[in-house]
Each structure stands twice: as structure tokens, then as C-alpha cells.
Write a structure and sequence with these properties.
single chain; 114 residues; alpha+beta; 35% helix; 18% strand
């Protein structure tokens, strides 16, 4: 199961869903235009997937559909690239932390000159 994060504001009847493990896009659940009790899902970039297009009777039902969608989908190219870049940065930081001060130690005078 993937970790889908929901930020829900029941007063405004809006919910924002993110899943950085699978996709960089942000999904928004909001009341359907012209619908009094129905909710629809929209994406911040591009069209919404066929599984998520439609109307839902509650925000919770929309959340269930989003979780199911993210559990079934493959990781997008954008989130793969971000994951790789983060992994490389972490590895470089660890390598830099483990390097000793060998550059400076060759200039240290050891022993007496007598």
C-alpha cells in the first residue's frame, strides 16, 4: 500500500491528495459544477485518469477511489527521476561526510626537525 496524503477542509468541501511515491501531480476533490451533493476529482496538470473521472457522493468515497488508483498505478517518470536525484544527493552527502581531511593532513608537520 502506498502512502496517500489527504488535506481535507470540510468547511470549504475541498480535499487535496498527494502521493509523491507514485506521481508528482496533485489531485483535488471538490463539489461538481452544477451538482449539489456530488464531488469530482481534478488534477493540477493534465486530464484525470478514467478511473477517477466521474462523480462521487462523498469526499470519503473519492478518497477511496484515489487510494485504489494509486495502489494500482505504476510510478510516473517524473517521480522516478525525482527519487533518483534524491538518492544521488543522499549518497554524495554521505560520501562527503565520511571523507577524512586527507588534503590538509599532508601539510601537517610530524616529528621534530632536529
Amino acid at each position: 500500500m502506498v502512502d496517500v496524503k489527504f488535506e481535507t477542509d470540510y468547511n470549504k468541501k475541498i480535499s487535496i491528495a498527494t502521493c509523491p511515491e507514485k506521481s508528482k501531480s496533485v489531485l483535488t476533490v471538490s463539489p461538481s459544477p452544477g451538482g449539489f451533493i456530488f464531488y469530482s476529482i481534478s488534477a493540477n496538470s493534465g486530464p484525470v485518469a478514467a478511473e477517477l473521472s466521474g462523480r462521487f457522493t462523498s469526499i470519503e468515497n473519492a478518497h477511496k477511489a484515489i487510494e485504489s488508483y494509486y495502489n494500482k498505478m505504476k510510478q510516473t517518470r517524473g517521480s522516478q527521476e525525482k527519487e533518483i536525484v534524491d538518492r544521488i544527493k543522499k549518497r554524495k552527502a554521505e560520501e562527503n561526510a565520511t571523507k577524512s581531511g586527507t588534503k590538509d593532513s599532508k601539510h601537517v608537520h610530524q616529528g621534530s626537525n632536529n
